[in-house]
Amino acid sequence: xxxxxxxxxxxxxxxxxxxxxxxxxxxxxxxxxxxxxxxxxxxxxxxxxxxxxxxxxxxxxxxxxxxxxxxxxxxxxxxxxxxxxxxxxxxxxxxxxxxxxxxxxxxxxxxxxxxxxxxxxxxxxxxxxxxxxxxxxxxxxxxxxxxxxxxxxxxxxxxxxxxxxxxxxxxxxxxxxxxxxxxxxxxxxxxxxxxxxxxxxxxxxxxxxxxxxxxxxxxxxxxxxxxxxxxxxxxxxxxxxxxxxxxxxxxxxxxxxxxxxxxxxxxxxxxxxxxxxxxxxxxxxxxxxxxxxxxxxxxxxxxxxxxxxxxxxxxxxxxxxxxxxxxxxxxxxxxxxxxxxxxxxxxxxxxxxxxx
Length: 356
Ligand code: NAI
Ligand code: MG
Known about the structure:
Strand 1 (2-11), helix 1 and strand 2 (36-42) form a beta-alpha-beta unit. The protein has 356 residues and is α/β, with parallel strands linked by helices. The two termini are 21 Å apart. The model has no long low-confidence stretch (mean pLDDT 97). The longest helix has 19 residues, at 15-33. It has 11 helices and 12 strands. It folds into 2 domains: 1-105 and 257-356, Isopropylmalate Dehydrogenase, CATH 3.40.718; 115-255, Isopropylmalate Dehydrogenase, CATH 3.40.718.10. It has helices at 15-33, 47-53, 61-65, 83-97, 162-179, 195-207, 220-229, 241-253, 295-307, 311-327, 341-354; strands spanning 2-11, 36-42, 70-75, 102-108, 126-132, 136-145, 153-159, 183-187, 215-219, 236-239, 262-266, 274-278. The site of 1,4-dihydronicotinamide adenine dinucleotide has 21 residues, from helix 4.
């Protein structure tokens, strides 16, 4: 029996609440499968830890996680700690420290999930975002000159390296080829005359190795419009760190909401552990009430199983979420139900087991 070491960082706000359900589901999956199990190690890092120690995670944090097979993350951020400190001190440190350069975010409308678009159904909204996750607009480079003076100048640099662009774009082409899907690149070359012109150029260059993959290139503003007006246009999508961040929240809102949106931070070369998380934040106003939707975290746990080599369990997890939605069974308030976070997790496990 294979035992996987999973590092668990519940984090802040609703993070620990939704994380409990993701762990519950992974244990249920290993019991049903019988071929593998999990050993979970919990790390109490986050805003509370910061208020006690002055750091979001210990200095040797990456070292301590390095031997894990994967990392599960809840959410980071809480009033009392500035968001740029909490996000950069934990989430971005892990993504960058472990070179998780692909952020894979499905935007898939399941049957029964609420959708604010009038004429769109599950057959219209089925995309997968490949977001650059290691550099770009989130590289954290810049300067703050002459603070608090009339000459104050703030510079936030975006960093686009050839290696950084090529590898994420190549990953997206490979994915599109493997799945027989079209590939859309989203950029903004008309206004960002260095970074995005370069991005477009690399997209074209890498594309020469994939003449079989049908592509389109869109400007980010047009892409935002088309995601609403004609979401069917999109299958595999590759884009920069910032644009991917924004467009996948838009994607979440047309595919059932933040409570259903999952993301995987991948090191495709598997030099380091990859990290799986709901894309939502810590929702401080919901925290402690037991009402947060755990299905995004559970979906992310499915991505973890896929990454470990069990795509059949990924499919089964997504199918089970869809079954809950169709049968309106065990859903939390954001999806029109009245179940608590843990009751939703329990209902999920019951339905997952049912299908044997
Ligand atoms: P948020 O994602 O926490 O909440 C946005 C909205 O979505 C709220 O209306 C919330 O009630 C709803 N929502 C989120 N998760 C939900 C769930 N599981 N079930 C039902 N409804 C859910 O984003 P917000 O409010 O902008 O940020 C709150 C904190 O989280 C901030 O400190 C922010 O920096 C942090 N954050 C952390 C992220 C991460 O850890 N990956 C990502 C985004 C924000
Ligand atoms: Mg975001």
